[in-house]
Amino acid sequence: MFSPSATHRQRFQKAILIFLFLFLSVALIITWNTPATGYESSIYRSTPLILWVSLIASVIVGIVLVVISIAKKELDQNFLWKIGLLLVLLCYTICVALFIIRGYYMWEIRGDPASHIGWIKETFNMGHTPAGDIYPVIHIYLSEIIFLTGLELVVLHKIVPIIFSVLFILYMYVFAKAIFSNTATALLVGIVSCSIFRTDFYLNLIPNGLSSLLLPLVLFVILKYLYQRRLAWAVLLSILVILYPIFHPVPTMFIGLVFLTLWIPHAVLEIIRYIRERKIPLPDLKCYKFELILPLLAMFIWSIFWIASFRVWDETLRRVFQTIFSEGTRSEAMGLLGTISHAQGYGYNIIEIGIKTYGVVMLLFALSVLAVLLLLRNLHYDRYDKPLLSLLGPFGVLSIVLPVLLLFDLPFNAFRFLHPFMLLMSIFSAYALYTILTYKGETFLLRGTTVVAVLVIVVISGLLLGGSLSLYPSPYNLGMSYHTTHAEVVGMEHVFDYRDVTTPLTGFSIAPGRFADALLTPEEKTVQRLPMYLKGGDSVPWHFGYDTHSSLSSVYGKEADLVITSRDKVFYTDLFPDMAQYRFTNQDFERLKVDPGIDSIYSNGEFDFFKVIMMF
Questions:
Q1: Which of 194, 197, 234, 327 sits CB 3.0–4.6 Å from 471 for a disulfide?
Q2: Which residues are bridge partners to 128 per DSSP?
Q3: In 62-128, where do the E strands start and end?
């Protein structure tokens, strides 16, 4: 078959890139002009198909250009891989910002972001952080942005996580450059990092997520401090050591783990060499006393001092003590097994759900294990990057610690450490892919590309596709969308303004305490006296009790305020259709409109406020 010249090939590639940029632009315009008109249980299903086609095509072409350039060692000769890399990063940015492009009013006001919005408002209005604020950094930071720019918090709570998510990829590339001696591996790290999506970290305004997205920058500073031993890096590291304990304790624990374990692989390697050769001295670890132990001790003391001044410290110690010394204490693993058993009872395929949710994690872990084996092989020939060998310490310890944490029931669960773990796995996975790509590329060239290069392209494309499908909660991954509509916020404002605070509030998925945190002042929250979530007897019974009673009022012994949202109506019919017949059906919500024991107080199409009355 005729093989085109390099000039013709570049012209063809340029034409494809121009077409994809135009195609992506048209798709974005169409998506922008078709915003969400109500609550969407799946952003994947609601977004115009043309955007997904353009994103998938653009990502694949971008990956192909980068991987082929690496396989053929043409990074210095061919500049088109840079355009391909830009295309991948652009698609990544579009994915994380899609809920903004689709016109979502707010995001996850049923969860932690609502409380953090309330703390930011208090910090801005009072000029200082409120009492009991264990994560003051992000609240002070956003208060200053509001003061300087005048931007509304409704806008900032969506934009700030997106900015951190984009910076995360840049930090991963910089971090990889500090580890590897070649640019190609760092490029693969940047691309693979685009696949480690976690909804709570990438899209939510929460200190744990934002601080975790900055971890590559922290690790970069640590490596520079450790291997260059310059005062500038020591100063930067000191700032981070002081900052992180008041940013969030979970990433702080990971940084402490890094300080504690970075030296272990080198020490083990030197001990093995000493045993084998008997010619080299045992490793001298005195330098680590100042380079790693002192920052670790400083961070540990400051963290304990800070966290011990809050109630969560006592709660954590109590749960650890109960788990270790008390019999029958419920652990996170037991709760997980109970959920699995419950889901299987309704006919759900746990293996399929696990692959959809954690398929990217499994593939990254498999590639990381392969990378460890390749690294050990290279150690035999004394061909390895010292920083990469250092990362074996925290990677190995986390591989053990994560399962162990499942045996406890702590305020922070094992999955809180999944993002740092995936961060490390991205580094090792890129190393494995680069090693395979360059090794095979020397012997199996096939018309300008390699057989193994195609495999690498398929693997990376699969990682990005799997990661993007798990980014947003949807029926695909059995997650309830975090979309909060403007009508829902307006409806809750009406409830707060006109409800009788002595009448109990009931509903299904509404989180009255979270909305109170976001919308009310501390004084107003004291008057409302609302629970954070509706649990147990506070929530409505299945089918609103219509399976045993003719009216919902028969279930309650007194008057109650009932809140129903669009999310409630589609929760089981869209998310868990096999369970709808046992929980709520469309007919149940229709019966509310004709129930003689219920008066409609307020409705705006997305939000309904009822009064449950007594009929006797």
A1: 197
A2: none
A3: 106-107
